[in-house]
Specification:
This protein is α+β, with helices and mostly antiparallel strands and about 550 residues long. The protein is about 20% helix and about 25% strand. The protein binds ligand MTE and molybdenum atom. Ligand MTE binds near residues 177, 255 and 341. Molybdenum atom binds next to loops.
Length: about 550
Amino acid sequence: MELPAQLDTTNRPDEWKIEQGMAGHKLPILDQSESDTVHIYPPVDMKLTKDEEAIASVGNRAKLFARERKGWKGYVEWENYPQKKAKAHKILTSQTFDPCPDFNFGPIPGTNPVLPGDDFKEWHTALGGELTTTADDSWRCVLKEKHPDMLHLLQFPYNGEPPKRLVTSKAITPNPSTLSGTMVVSRSSKKKLDGLVHNPKTYKFSDLMDETKFPRIEKTVTIQCSGTRRIEQISLYGGQGDEVPQAPWAEGAIGTARYVGISLKKVIKDCGGLIKPAKHLELYGAETYVKDLEVGNYVVSVPWSKVKANEVILAWEMNGEPLPKIHGYPMRVVVLGYIGARSVKWLYRIKAIENPSLAPVQSREYLYFNQQVGKYNLRPTDGIQIQEMPVSSAIMSPWTKQAIVHRGKIRCKGWAYSGGGRWPERVELSADGGFSWYDVPPEKLSKKGKWTWRTWEYDLPCDVEGWIEIVCRCWDNSLNTQPLNVRAAWNWGLHVTSSAHRIKIYSINKSRELTRRRLDKYEQLGVPLAPLTRYEIVPGQTDEEYEEYWKAHEPRDVDE
Ligand SMILES: Nc1nc2c(c(=O)[nH]1)N[C@H]1C(S)=C(S)[C@@H](COP(=O)(O)O)O[C@H]1N2
Ligand SMILES: [Mo]
C-alpha cells in the first residue's frame, strides 16, 4: 500500500499542541456576551502604514530633536518643551510598527540577547535626530562595560543580569545587574534644582564635590529591580510588564555596590529649603522614554520625608571607580531601600513638587495591582506605587530540574533582601515543598546591613530519593515574610515576585544503602549516570536476586 504523503485532516497544524494545553493562547478570543458566540481572531497580514506627509509636516527632525547639551550624546530634552513632545507623538502615531513578538506564552527565545527590543529601537529611529544611533550606542557601551558573561535579556533599552554563579559569588556584586537604557554623557555639565525651593540653583559637577558644603556619604546599597524573578509570574500566567517588552528577569535583577556621593537633603537646604506645599522631589534622567507613544525623559519622584532622612544620595562613584556609563555616569540618584526604578541615572535636574510625579514611570508604571485587575479594567489610580520592596529571597544554586548526587545534604546558595531599611533576620529552607523548615545558621549568612541583602549558604538535610521541591523564605527584622506561592503575589504588571522561591531537584541520595550500591555498580561497569531519564543499562536486580527475594518473602499471589 502506498503511504499517503499528507494526512487528510481538517485539524489546524497546531491542533495537538492546543489539545494538550500548550497553545490555548493561539485560539480566538471567545465572545460569549451575546446569544451567538463570536470568535475574535487577531488581525492577519496587518500592513504597516506611514503617513509621510504628516511626518514631514512636523519639520526638520535633526534640528527639532537635537542634542540638548554639549557632550551629552543621546540627550534630547522633552520635559521643558511640550510642543516638541507633541511633535514626537505625532511622528509615532502617524505610522504603525511591527508588534514585538509575544513571549508570555512561550517559547522565550534561547538567544543572548534574549529579546532585541525592536519596539523601542524603532521608536527611536522613527524620531530620528539625536536618537538615531542611541540603540547602537547603548549596545556598544554594554559590550564595553559589562562582564562578558552577562545574560542580556533585552538589548534595548538595555536589561541584563549576571548568570546565577556570579550574582552571589561575593557580598558586593563584582558587576551588578543593569536594568535600563544607556546614555553616553559627560561630566562637564550642570544639574538644575528648581521648582518649590526658595532659591532655585544650577550646580556644576565640581560645586557638588565641595566637601565643605556637601559632606561625602559612602554606603553599601543593594538595588533591586521590582521585576526580579518575573519569569516565575510569566510562566504561570501571561501579563503585561512595563518595559517594552517586559524583560523576563530571573533572580539576578539585584546587585550590591558601594556608592560615594552626597545627601540630596543638603543640596535642597543649599537652595534655601522647600516652599510650601512641596512634599516630593522629581528626579530627571536624561534619556528618552516612550510610554503609549508619548515621549519624555526618564522622570520619577521620591517623597521629601525620604530625602529628609538622608536616604536619597546623589552618587558619582561605584565600587571605588567613577560610575560606569551604564550605571549613570556622571551622576545618579541612589534611593536607599527603594526599588531600582527610583535610582535615576544620568541625572540632570531635580524639581520640588507637591504631589508624586505625573511622569509615566511614577504614575502609570511600577504599580502593584490586585489580581483581578487586568488589561481591560486597569486604572493607574488602582495600583499601589511600588517604592519599598517587600522581603524576598532566592536560591541561586542548584538550578531547578537539576539532579544532585549527595550524602543526605544538598548544598544550597542564595540571597535574601528586604526593602525600606529592613534586613533579612532569618533565612529558612524546606526540602519538602514548604511543610518543614530549617534555619540557615547565622554564621552562614553574610553580614547584616540596613540597606543591603545577605547572601547565604546551607547544606540542606534531605532524606529522600527522587523529585523534591526546595523552598526558600526569609523573615526580616520586622517579622515580615514571603507568601508561599507565586499565585498569591501574581499581578498583571508582573512586578514584585516576592513569594517563597521554589525549585525542583532530583535527589540521588547516597545516604541510602540501595542508591549507594547501585551507583557503585554504575561506576564498576563504567556506565555514565547522566542523562537521568535514559533507559536502564544496569538492571535494578539480577535474575538471581529476584529469585532470592521471593524465596525469602511471601509470594505475590495468594490462593485463598
Ligand atoms: N535614567 C534612568 N535611570 C534608571 C533607569 C532608566 O531606565 N533610566 N532604570 C531604573 C531601573 S528600573 C533600575 S532597576 C535601576 C538599575 O540600576 P543598575 O543598572 O545600576 O543596576 O536603574 C534605574 N534608573
Ligand atoms: Mo527596574
